[in-house]
């Protein structure tokens, strides 16, 4: 079987009807369903310690080990709303974690003499700011809410600060006090201080690709866990919960697929970017789409692997190397 | 605190101990503050309030994943934390003598195995009954002419015990073994360290020697430099600077003129270090500078390159290299520092900088730190400087110049610096030539040395010669020698300029020095100088005994035999430059005077170097087993003599055949346990022989091991191989002994002992001596008698009772509960045998009951769950067969 959605031939055009394409987006969403998330046992304890001590949880680990997803899983299991996510950028400042103030519009409004001079309406609350506001009764913070802000009642929330290592060095340092006390001040509103209620403190989960860029003082205030890359058994389990098709530990396709996957991940493989779990999942789906048989060994279909390898290894220079590794692997398996 | 203590104490791990463990971690470099201690305590209290405090082994083990997130701040720490925690837990558990509740691991013991076990047990019982009925009536009296000397048992036992106890006590406090070991080491000759080439990668002993951090640089200097280097710099951002915008807008009469703001950012540095080899000491020096900067809070990212800075590697050479584009993408705004000889950047063909030097213009701020002294700078430095690099010396002064540049934007003038001679002409042209093993002409060597002496100065030349004394060049040793030797005017040899000059030399860059040069340099030393250097080195080696964390590790190779596994692992990680590589080898040398090229090893640290110190000095390290062995030799000789002569006598040599054989058999049994245990990585003492003053002179041998043994396979191996090897030796001795035995006619009136026969004894004697008529019997030779005793001994140990070998095997197979049941059944059977067949079994049953004491405490779990291999099953089968073959229902009867 081949992909035949697009063939490059004019005669295959669908003149009237629209071609039916696979539901790729929803399938991806299905993979990210928190119900299917399988945390590392150490990670479970780390989360509990963080909850117990009320300290932020800092997660590091290779891409694809499920750092970001943990926040969704925690929020889901504790019955909270989905986490409030703050995506760190290289220009992020600590203030942006709480709110941004549109100075330019405010200035402009003042210039042209618009009537709307309420500072509040130029204020946008961000992830941790929203979480702290929600940790208070609506009535207590109502005066600080801009128009259209939906408070939705007092509750706890999970806040996810994604990839904090992208931010400038000062970012984590500037956060220390605010995160510890769970408060922030709005200088534009005469330095009003908004503080989370003690029992409603937001749960903070921070991810980072490497802990090296983070200052010691920050590391010390966090509960730290490095998610190790899953081993074969864990991978099998993850695959089972994520894509149910490949059930059974001993299915031939999966054994070979995991073997090739670990070969590609070996330290000496020479790949710049090692494939991670997400790539593996994607690859398995593609294999399935391409008609790989669950009960047959993958090594018998080298062309199938070669065709789908681009889902596993994504950079151009790595692909060459990956094909060489694949050839060696097939030869080794055959002998 | 109080309540907590109460709850935790059942687990025998007290919070105090846990905090001691945290203290240890802190000393090991973990960043643990008061908050962490409090957090750990909070977690414990929280667990206690939920009633989930650890009181089982498994729970304690789980505690690590609760504590690790609080303590660790990096993946490495996380990994080592788990190891350290396990180590600590095992230690404190063994000291607390804890009983282990069952393991929570999933049970994988299969039903089949259990069934099989019962079948086997049934067969054993059946066979025992068959053997019993078959052989007990047909006992033939073995003639033993001398009457059994019962007096020896009664008369000697009390004083004997007292003497043994006294000797044990004495030997624990004052060891004659110390004198013996000293004597032994003299006999063995000197141990030396010597450079040797090997195409195979040998096995290494790693010893860590203590060495306080050498102060190469003045720390106060660095603090100042770091402060300046770390000063924030302003960068423009696309955010409005409101006050400025307002000011300008109002200046322009309300015309909106946005002004973008700026932000102060901490500067970061990208450092590229030229590293020609893994032992490149010039790179080590650069690393030292970087370490100093990082310690003072400067953000540094370091990469290495080999001559060509366009291709860089990080610390791990196996990762793919990075190109300039990669680096630019990762570190666009960093300040670039390159540690390199300027000659690397100059094309030898054109004399101009390589065209690619232009590519470094990607970084606006860039500098070259060259090891050459500014006084000798010339055209090369000029052209590099023209291409936009700042050229500064790779010294603290160079860093100061760098700061000036950073803060004032002017190219700083390199002021007057200390005079230093130019790099030796001979070395300039082809540095690698001087690494060759083949000795050049003496004239050239002479020329080289005089140029070196001129370049380095007499003090640094002395330092160079000192470095040549140790067989290999090593950064740690270079520094150590530098700080412990005194040059002219009693000054410390180590200083920045000398170190810089020394590390420029090709031997230090490639990390090896040919033997001809070493010999030349050492012979240039005066006798006192050489003695001082050797003493200083000895002191360094001795510091390995202190086992402190500070310092560095020396790799010392041992003979490259039978270490295939290690060879492989090393081959994978070490880059192979050539087939033949040099290592520092450990060698023995006796009698001769050591050559100049070797370093003698202090006696005291000899034990550190052996892969397995205990197996080398088997008895010397443990006085009690040795002493017991000596006593046992005496008692067995005594017993053997009585048997031979018929009455107590001091012509002990007559007892030699018996004594030797019985000791050999028991040693085979005990060493079977001991060696297997050691091979399985379990701490064990050499066998303790238990002497007695009866006829046999020996009661047994006992091997003390460190419990619990966590692997079933190990347990099974240890306790099957012991009896198997004991049996093999016994059987061999029976065969030999039977060949030497005589057959004699027996007169029924004479008293003596008739020995019972096991299957194996029966078969063997039939095969060797043949069928005997009724009135004849075998007069056993002492060797055969010892073999017979050995067989009985082995068989008794295979009884499936408590802490005996058989009991252990049953335990390992089916867990504690079954083992206990089987033990009691077996004791019951023994008592029954004692009543109906032979009273001696009663004493065996009593011994069995003693063996039940503390049976359970030694195990980690009630059931082992690791699966069994075929080879282990074979061993169990062999032990079973041996038990059947050697079981003697009625060991002996006295006939009067």
Q: What topology does this entry show?
A:
The complex is a heterodimer of chains A (335) and B (896).
Chain A: H1 24-31, H2 41-53, E1 57-61, H3 67-78, E2 84-87, E3 99-101, H4 103-112, E4 123-125, H5 127-134, H6 138-141, E5 158-162, H7 170-181, E6 183-186, E7 192-195, E8 203-207, H8 216-221, E9 223-227, H9 232-242, H10 252-265, H11 277-289, H12 302-312, H13 316-334
Chain B: H1 2-8, H2 15-27, H3 34-49, H4 57-71, H5 75-96, H6 111-135, H7 151-173, H8 176-188, E1 190-198, E2 203-209, H9 219-229, E3 233-240, H10 242-251, E4 260-265, E5 268-274, H11 281-295, E6 299-305, H12 324-330, E7 335-339, E8 366-370, H13 379-386, E9 390-393, H14 396-408, H15 425-429, H16 442-469, H17 475-484, H18 496-504, H19 506-510, H20 515-524, H21 527-542, E10 552-558, H22 564-573, E11 581-589, E12 599-600, H23 606-609, H24 613-616, H25 623-645, H26 656-679, E13 688-691, E14 698-702, H27 712-740, E15 742-745, E16 752-755, H28 759-769, E17 776-779, H29 782-797, H30 805-836, H31 840-852, H32 870-886, E18 892-895
Quick one: overall form of chain A?
elongated
Uncertain segments of chain A are: none
Shape of chain B: elongated
Q: How large, in whole angstroms, is the Cα Rg of chain B?
A: 38 Å
Q: What is the averaged pLDDT score of chain B?
A: 74
- Strand content of chain B is 5-15%
Query: What does the radius of gyration of chain A come to?
Result: 25 Å
Number of strands of chain B: 18
Secondary-structure-based class of chain A equals alpha/beta
Number of helices, counting only DSSP H or I runs of 4 residues or more of chain B: 32
User: Termini of chain A, distance in Å?
Assistant: 28 Å
Annotation field: number of helices of chain A: 13
Report the order of strands and helices of chain A: HHEHEEHEHHEHEEEHEHHHHH
C-alpha end-to-end distance of chain B: 74 Å
What percentage of the residues of chain A does DSSP assign to strands (E)? 5-15%
């Amino acid at each position: 079987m081949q992909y035949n959605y697009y063939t490059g031939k004019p005669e295959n055009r669908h003149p009237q009807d629209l071609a039916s394409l696979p539901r790729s987006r929803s399938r991806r969403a299905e993979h990210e369903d928190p119900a299917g998330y399988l945390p590392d046992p150490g990670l479970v304890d780390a989360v509990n310690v963080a909850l117990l001590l009320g300290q932020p949880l800092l997660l590091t680990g290779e891409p694809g080990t499920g750092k970001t997803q943990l926040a969704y899983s925690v929020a889901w299991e504790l019955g909270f709303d989905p986490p409030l996510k703050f995506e760190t950028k290289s220009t992020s400042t600590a203030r942006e974690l709480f709110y941004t103030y549109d100075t330019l519009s405010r200035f402009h409004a003042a210039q042209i003499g618009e009537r709307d001079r309420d500072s509040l309406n130029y204020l946008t609350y961000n992830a941790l700011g929203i979480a702290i506001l929600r940790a208070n009764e609506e009535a207590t913070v109502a005066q600080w809410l801009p128009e259209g802000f939906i408070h939705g009642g007092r509750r706890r929330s999970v806040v996810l600060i994604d990839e904090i290592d992208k931010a400038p060095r000062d970012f984590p340092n500037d956060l220390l006090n605010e995160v510890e006390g769970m408060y922030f001040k709005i200088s534009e509103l005469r330095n009003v201080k908004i503080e989370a209620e003690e029992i409603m403190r937001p749960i903070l989960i921070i991810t980072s690709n490497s802990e090296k860029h983070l200052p010691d003082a920050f590391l010390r205030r966090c509960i730290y866990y490095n998610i190790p890359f899953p081993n074969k058994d864990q991978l099998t389990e993850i695959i089972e919960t994520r894509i149910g098709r490949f059930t059974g530990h001993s299915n031939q396709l999966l054994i070979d697929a995991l073997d090739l996957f670990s070969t590609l991940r070996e330290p000496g493989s020479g790949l710049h970017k090692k494939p991670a779990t997400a790539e593996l999942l994607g690859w398995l789906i593609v294999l399935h789409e391409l008609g790989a048989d669950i009960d047959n060994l993958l090594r018998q279909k080298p062309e199938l692997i070669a065709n789908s390898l681009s889902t596993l290894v994504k950079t151009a220079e790595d692909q060459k190397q990956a094909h060489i590794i694949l050839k060696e692997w097939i030869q080794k398996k055959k002998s | 605190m109080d309540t907590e203590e109460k709850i935790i104490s059942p687990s025998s791990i007290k919070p105090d101990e846990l905090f001691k463990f945290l203290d240890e971690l802190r000393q090991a470099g973990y960043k643990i503050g008061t908050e962490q201690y409090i957090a750990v305590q909070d977690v414990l209290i929280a667990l206690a309030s939920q009633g989930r405090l650890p009181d089982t082994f498994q729970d304690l083990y789980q505690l690590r994943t609760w504590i690790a997130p609080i303590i660790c701040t990096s993946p490495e720490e996380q990994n080592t934390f788990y190891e350290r925690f396990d180590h600590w837990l095992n230690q404190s558990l063994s000291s607390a003598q804890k009983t282990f509740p069952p393991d929570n691991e999933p049970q994988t013991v299969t039903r089949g195995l259990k069934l099989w076990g019962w079948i086997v047990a049934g067969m054993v019982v059946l066979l025992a009954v068959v053997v019993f009925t078959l052989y007990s009536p047909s006992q033939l009296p073995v003639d033993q002419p001398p009457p059994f000397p019962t007096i020896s048992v009664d008369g000697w036992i009390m004083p004997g015990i007292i003497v043994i106890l006294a000797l044990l006590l004495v030997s624990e406090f004052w060891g004659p073994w110390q004198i013996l070991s000293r004597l032994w080491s003299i006999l063995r000759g000197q141990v030396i360290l010597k450079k040797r080439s090997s195409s195979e990668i040998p096995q290494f002993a790693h010893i860590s020697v203590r060495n306080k951090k050498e102060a190469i640089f003045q720390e106060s200097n660095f603090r100042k430099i770091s402060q300046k280097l770390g000063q924030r710099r302003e960068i423009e951002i696309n955010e409005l600077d409101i006050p400025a915008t307002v000011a300008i807008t109002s200046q322009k009469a309300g015309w909106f003129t946005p002004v973008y703001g700026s932000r102060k950012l901490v500067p970061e540095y990208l450092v590229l270090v030229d590293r020609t080899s893994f032992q490149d000491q010039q790179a080590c020096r650069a690393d030292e500078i970087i370490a100093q900067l990082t310690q003072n809070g400067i953000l540094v990212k370091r990469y290495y390159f080999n001559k060509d800075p366009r291709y860089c590697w990080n610390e791990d050479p196996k990762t793919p290299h990075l190109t300039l584009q990669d680096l630019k993408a990762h570190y666009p705004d960093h300040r670039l520092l390159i540690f390199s000889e300027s000659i690397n950047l100059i094309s030898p063909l054109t004399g101009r900088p390589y065209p690619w030097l232009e590519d470094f213009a990607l970084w606006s701020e860039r500098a070259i730190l060259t090891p050459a002294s500014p006084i000798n700078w010339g055209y090369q430095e000029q052209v590099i400087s023209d291409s936009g690099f700042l050229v500064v010396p790779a010294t603290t002064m160079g860093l100061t110049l760098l700061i000036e540049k950073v803060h004032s934007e002017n190219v700083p003038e390199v002021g007057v610096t200390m005079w230093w001679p130019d790099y030796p002409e001979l070395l300039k042209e082809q540095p690698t030539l001087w690494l060759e093993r083949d000795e050049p002409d003496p004239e050239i060597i002479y020329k080289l040395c005089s140029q070196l002496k001129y370049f380095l100065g007499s003090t640094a030349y002395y330092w160079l010669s000192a470095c040549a004394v140790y067989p290999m060049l090593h950064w740690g040793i270079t520094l150590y020698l530098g700080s412990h030797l005194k040059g002219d005017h009693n000054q410390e040899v180590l200083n920045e300029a000398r170190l810089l000059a020394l590390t420029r030399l090709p031997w230090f860059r490639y990390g090896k020095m040919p033997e001809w040069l070493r010999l030349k340099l050492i012979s240039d030393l005066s006798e006192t100088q050489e003695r001082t250097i050797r003493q200083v080195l000895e002191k360094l080696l001795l510091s390995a005994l202190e086992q402190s964390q500070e310092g560095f590790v020396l790799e010392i190779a041992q003979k490259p035999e039978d270490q295939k596994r290690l060879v492989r692992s090393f081959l994978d990680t070490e880059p192979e430059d050539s087939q033949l590589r040099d290592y520092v080898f450990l060698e023995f040398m006796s009698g001769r005077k050591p050559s100049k090229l070797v370093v003698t090893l202090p006696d005291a640290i000899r034990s550190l170097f052996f892969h397995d110190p205990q197996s080398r000095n088997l008895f010397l390290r443990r006085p009690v087993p040795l002493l017991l062995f000596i006593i046992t030799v005496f008692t067995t000789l005594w017993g053997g003599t009585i048997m031979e002569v018929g009455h107590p006598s001091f012509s002990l040599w007559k007892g030699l055949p018996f004594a030797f054989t019985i000791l050999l058999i028991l040693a085979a049994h005990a060493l079977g346990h001991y060696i297997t245990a050691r091979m399985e990585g379990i701490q064990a003492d050499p066998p303790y022989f238990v002497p007695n003053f009866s006829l046999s002179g020996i009661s047994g041998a006992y091997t003390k091991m460190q419990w619990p043994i966590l692997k079933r396979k190990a347990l099974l191996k240890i306790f099957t191989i012991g009896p198997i090897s004991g049996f093999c030796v016994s059987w061999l001795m029976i065969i030999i002994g039977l060949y030497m035995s005589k057959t004699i006619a027996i007169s029924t009136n004479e008293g003596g002992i008739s020995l019972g026969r096991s299957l194996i004894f029966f078969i063997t004697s039939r095969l060797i001596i043949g069928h005997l008529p009724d009135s004849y019997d075998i007069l056993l030779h002492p060797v055969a008698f010892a073999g017979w005793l050995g067989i009985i001994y082995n068989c008794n140990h295979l009884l499936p009772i408590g802490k005996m070998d058989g009991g252990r095997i049953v335990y390992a197979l089916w867990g504690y509960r079954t083992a206990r049941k089987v033990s009691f059944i077996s004791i019951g059977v023994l008592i029954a045998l004692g009543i109906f067949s032979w009273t001696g079994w009663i004493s065996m049953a009593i011994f069995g009951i003693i063996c039940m004491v503390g049976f359970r405490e030694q195990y980690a779990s009630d059931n082992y769950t690791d699966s069994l291999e075929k080879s282990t099953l074979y061993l169990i089968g062999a032990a079973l067969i041996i038990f059947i073959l050697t079981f003697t229902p009625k060991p002996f009867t006295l006939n009067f």
